[in-house]
Amino acid sequence: MPEGDATTARAAETARFGRGFLRDIWYFAALSGDLRPGKLQRYEILGEPILLGRRGDGQVYALRDICPHRAAPLSAGRLVREAGGSEVVECPYHGWRFKTDGVCSAIPSMVDGQAIDVGRIRVRRYPAQESQGMAFVWMASDARGEAEPDQPPPTFPGVVGGAPKLVDRMVFDSHIDHAVIGLMDPAHGPYVHQNWWWRSPASQHDKAKAFEPREAGFAMARHAPSKNSYAYKILGGAPKTEIVFRLPGLRYEHIEVGPRQVLSLTCLTPVNDGKTRITQIMWSDHWAFTLLRPFIASGARRFLRQDAAMVNLQNEGLAYDPTLMWIDDADRQAKWYQALKREWTTSRREGRPFANPVEPAVLRWRS
User: Fold this and answer.
1) Contacts of 24 (CB under 8 A, 6+ apart)
2) CA 43, CA 46: separation in Å to the nearest integer?
3) What is the CA radius of gyration of the chain?
4) Which of 150, 170, 238, 275 could bond to 271 as cystine, CB 3.0-4.6 Å?
5) Which ranges carry the Rieske domain (predicted)?
6) Does the CA dihedral 60-63-66-72 come out positive or negative?
7) DSSP H or E segment with residue 86
8) pTM
C-alpha cells in the first residue's frame, strides 16, 4: 500500500470510535517517584513495549523494549556505566549495549576484523519528559521515532503541597474511548455510584452547566457543586469546582475552597486495544486530606472500581459490536470527544494548527 494511502487508512481507523489511537501527542506514563536511577521498567503504551528509566543525572528516557538482535526485553537487563562514563542499557541475552538515545554502543561477541558499525544499529527512542511530578512519553506517528515533540507536556492547576496525597491505579478492560466517555458521562452517577455519601436515583434533579473550549479539550466552567453531591461538604466553606477534559485522556477536577485547593487528576493511558491503564492522582493543601485521608482514599478507590465493574458489564454488550446511540445533552461531551479526536488526527496529517471544534454551550440533563 502506498505511504499516502496507508496514512489515510490509519487516520480513518483512529477516527472510528473504539478503534486506533491518537499519535503525535503526550501520554502519561508514570509518576516521577516511580522512576529510580538505574531501575529499568517495562510499560506497554498503545500496544508498544516501552522501557522507561532514569539516568544517574536524573534525566528520564524511554526506549523500545525489544533488543534488535534476538528480541529479548531490554528492561530485563541492567543499566551500566561504560569506561567513558556514559550510562548504557545492557541486554540480558548477549550483552548488547544501547545508549539512552537508542544508539548501540557495543556488541561483546564481536572480534577484531569484523566490520560492523555498531553505531548504525539502534532501538527506537521515545521522547520522554517530566512535568509536575509526572513522566510523559511522546507517541509519534513516525514509526522510526525520529520526530521530536512540537509542544511541551501538559500542566495542571492545583498541583500543591509536593507529593500527591492519594494515588490509585487499575486497568480497565476496554479501549480508551469507552474508558474516556465512561468517566466523563454526567448521567451515570446516581446509578453506578450509589453510595450514602454521594448520590442516589431518588436525589436526581435537572441540571444546567456551562461548558467552554480549552486547550485540546473542553471544560465544565467553574461552578458550585450540585447539592446532592454530599462528598463536597467535608471541604466546608463554599467550594467552587471546574472539570476539564484534555486529549488524549486527561480529566481533572480543580476545586477551590477559599485559599485551599484540591486537584483530582485521572490519567487514561492505552495499554492496547482492549486495556486502558487508569491512574488517579490527588493533590491538596486542604486540612481534610490530613485528618480524613483514609476515608477519602477509600471513597476514591470505591468510585474507580464501581466504574470498572460497569465497564466489564458493558463489555458483554460491546462483544456484539452494536451501534451506539448518542443523545443531547447528556452525551454531548462524548460527541465533543469524538470531534476532538478527528480534528487532532486531521490537523496533524495536514500539518496545520489544531482548531478546537468545541463551541461554548449550556448543557442540560437530569442526574
Assistant:
1) 138, 139, 140, 141, 147, 150, 348
2) 10
3) 23
4) 275
5) 27-137
6) negative
7) none
8) 0.91
3-state SS, one letter per residue, for 162-224? CCCCEEEEEEECCCHHHHHHHHHCCCCHHHHCECCCCECHHHCCEEEEEEEEECCEEEEEEEC
**Helix, strand, or coil (residue 146):** coil
State the residue for C-alpha cell 468517566: 183
The overall longest dimension of the chain from CA atoms, in Å, is 81
- How far apart CA 72 and CA 53 sit, in angstroms, is 17
In the DSSP assignment, the letter for residue 87 is E
Q: Judge contact between 79 and 41, C-beta under 8 A.
A: no
Name every residue whose Cβ is closer than 8 Å to that of residue 320 and which is 6 or more positions away in sequence: none
What is the phi/psi pair of residue 177, to 5°? -60, -45
pLDDT per residue as tens digits for the range 111-146 = 888 888 999 999 999 999 999 999 999 999 987 767
Facing residues of 223 across strands?
241
pLDDT at 204: 80
Which residue has 509526572 as its cell numbers? 134
Residue type, 232: Y
- Coil, strand or helix at 336: helix
Residue 366 has pLDDT above 90, yes or no: no
Residue 1's pLDDT band, with cuts at 50, 70 and 90, is very low
Burial class (CB in 10 A: 0-12, 13-18, 19+), 246: middle
Torsion from C-alpha of 138, 142, 148, 153, nearest 10 degrees: -20
- 87-90: strand order across its sheet: 78-81, 87-90, 97-99, 104-106
Give pLDDT tens digits for 307-331: 888 888 898 999 999 999 998 899 9
Contacts of 110 by beta carbon, 8 Å cutoff, 6+ apart: 116, 118
pLDDT at 235 over 60: yes
Per-residue HEC secondary structure of 276-311 comes to EEEEEEEEECCCHHHHCHHHHHHHHHHHHHHHHHHH
What pLDDT was estimated at residue 184? 85
The CA distances from residue 352 to 149, 201, 347, 348, 355, in Å, are 15, 46, 5, 6, 9
Residue 87 corresponds to which cell in the numbers above? 550510562
